[in-house]
Structures are given as structure tokens and as C-alpha cells.
Here is the input.
Amino acid sequence: MRDGRLYLDGVSVVFDGFRALNNLSLIVEPGELRAIIGPNGAGKTTMMDIITGKTRPTAGTVSFGDRDLTRLDEATIANLGIGRKFQKPTVFDALTVFENLELALKAPRDPWSCLRWRLSGTARRCIEAVLEEIGLAERADHRAAILSHGQRQWLEIGMLLMQDPKLLLVDEPVAGMTDQETEHTAALLRRIAGSRSVVVVEHDLEFVRALGEKVTVLCEGSVLSEGSIDHVQNDPRVVDVYLGR
Ligand code: ADP
Here is the structure.
């Protein structure tokens, strides 16, 4: 199922009579990097919650490859290879960068137990490949506590990569980053996509431009516009409700 296509088909979510998602349909092709933008309250977080099984749709279906995710629980969906990175990084400050990645590979119930495990050669190679990928190879032995905000975000993306996801959902990765860190993050996500699909929710339009891929604009729980960043930025409906020019 490496070639999973994400398909939300007519998804609605109603909270106490309020329609957070309204007949939302969205397709993300295998290997695609997709940015999701939209005003506050548009339904972006709810959409991510629906994909990961945190929230159940009131109507509609969600599938990934040939699997129907609509009624599956969060753990089962995660085990199908769908990883999610929340805005706030959750790395272990007391551990080194390498140990954080090692922990993610083992994903043990007791986070400390894996430190006593001997790494197999394969595991070490896998960690080293991810260290290169996220640009932290030279900081492998640094404690996470001393990393910059951007480096912590990359480490957490690396921890997700250790699980070899087929689809990675990333929530506002560049909030609070310097321009240089933002550029690094765009390059990292571009590298990651291709061998896996990536869906990024983000407010920073310069970052979305740097991703250089298709953009979906959500508004009031459904798709308002879709296409290149230039296309959506010039779409009068998007200007009206989101960009406010
Ligand atoms: P976004 O991430 O685009 O800002 P959200 O998905 O967080 O939007 O929210 C969409 C709408 O649904 C908002 O109006 C929000 O207040 C509402 N909403 C989200 N979760 C709940 C909930 N658990 N109960 C009631 N309303 C909710």
C-alpha cells in the first residue's frame, strides 16, 4: 500500500449543530506534497483529525489506498503508515538527537527502556539516514534541550520518518521559525515528498510558495479553491474571504 492515495469523499462533521466540515472532497495523490490554507475556523484541524481517526465524520468516507479509514481508530490508522506532526514539538529534552530518533524507531511503551537496547546495524543505518535527511547529522550527540526551535521541529519530523510513514500530516511547521529555518523546512518537506505523501497545514504563504506544489484553500468546511499558489492567490473568492485585499 505504499502507493496510497488519500481520498476524502463528501466528508461532513457536525459539532452540536455546527458544520465544521461541509461535504469536503479532497484527493492527495501518492507522493504529492499538498499545502492546505484557509482562514481560522475553516476546518483545517478538523480535516487532519478526520484523516487520523481522532474525529469521526458525520457523513462521507475517508480512504487511503484500498483501505477505508472512516471507522478505524487512531492507533489502527497510525499503523497503516499515517503519521501526524502537531505544531508543538514533542521531543525528549534529556535525550540526544540520536537517542530521540532511536526512541521513535523502537516506539516502546517505556521511553527509557530502549536506551538499554543494543542497536542493530540496520537500525543505526536507518537513524543515520534520517539524521542526514533532517540536516542534524552534526548534532547527533547534542541533547535536544539545546536545539533551536527549528531544529526541534526537524527532529520531530525525523522521529516520524523513523516510523516510515506513507502519509505525513504536518501542522503549521514554520510558526516561530527564522527565515533560514523556514527555507530549510520547505526543502526538507520537498525532499520527503515523492517517496511518501505530505499534507501541510500552514498560514505562512511565503513558505507555501516555497513548497512550490498544489495548494487547497479551505473555507467554511469545504474547498474554496485549488491550484498553484499564484492561482489561489489571484482567485477573487480567496482574496475576498482569506487574503482580504
Ligand atoms: P481551523 O483549523 O481551520 O482553524 P478547525 O477545524 O479548528 O478550524 O475548526 C473549524 C470549526 O469547528 C471552528 O468554528 C471550531 O470552533 C469548530 N470546532 C472544532 N472542533 C470543535 C468541537 N470539538 N466542538 C465544537 N466545535 C468545534
About this structure: The pocket of adenosine-5'-diphosphate is lined by residues 15-16, 18, 20, 38, 40-46 (CB under 6 Å). The domain at 6-243 is CATH 3.40.50.300 (Rossmann fold). The chain has one domain: 6-243.
